[in-house]
Fold this sequence. Notes:
Layout: H1 21-31, E1 37-38, E2 42-45, E3 48-51, H2 78-87, E4 93-96, E5 102-107, H3 108-120, E6 128-130, E7 135-140, H4 144-154, E8 164-167, E9 172-174, E10 187-190, H5 202-215
Amino acid sequence: xxxxxxxxxxxxxxxxxxxxxxxxxxxxxxxxxxxxxxxxxxxxxxxxxxxxxxxxxxxxxxxxxxxxxxxxxxxxxxxxxxxxxxxxxxxxxxxxxxxxxxxxxxxxxxxxxxxxxxxxxxxxxxxxxxxxxxxxxxxxxxxxxxxxxxxxxxxxxxxxxxxxxxxxxxxxxxxxxxxxxxxxxxxxxxxxxxxxxxxxxxxxxxxxxxxxxxxxx
Length: 217
């Protein structure tokens, strides 16, 4: 079953129902050929939920790596992914950037504005993630993190003046249906489908993203 978030005319955001974290992680590896690795998880604590890292001030409860060498855990094997989530079924699903994709991250308000412009321009989009901390992450071809600063400058903006961050090698994103504590679950603004298997280059999306970030300052 799918639900959509009210008031978002730019995109319908399906919520996954019935699939376990294990099944979803395996599907990402099997169907999208994405590397996946298990992160922290949420634990009950007197009626509340706390991160398994046990840090009461954790900024991303239940949605960050469990160890410094997390990159070595990431796997594109559905069999290995299944084995890892069997060990900890409630672990978050994290996807490393800089391998099969990079991510262009903007504030939610700028993201929906950019998404609406992209759809009007009939741009080919890849999957887009919406996080509970009100960020949108546009998945693009690897290499974006190196190109984005110059692309932004070519459009007349200083990269430091815009809330536009490119995640590449050494970074990661949390994938649906991972939960950020009591803040809610990560969702798809544009879900992975056969139609968006081929990701756009950052150059194809940078103009509407830069415009939206400039409007959102």
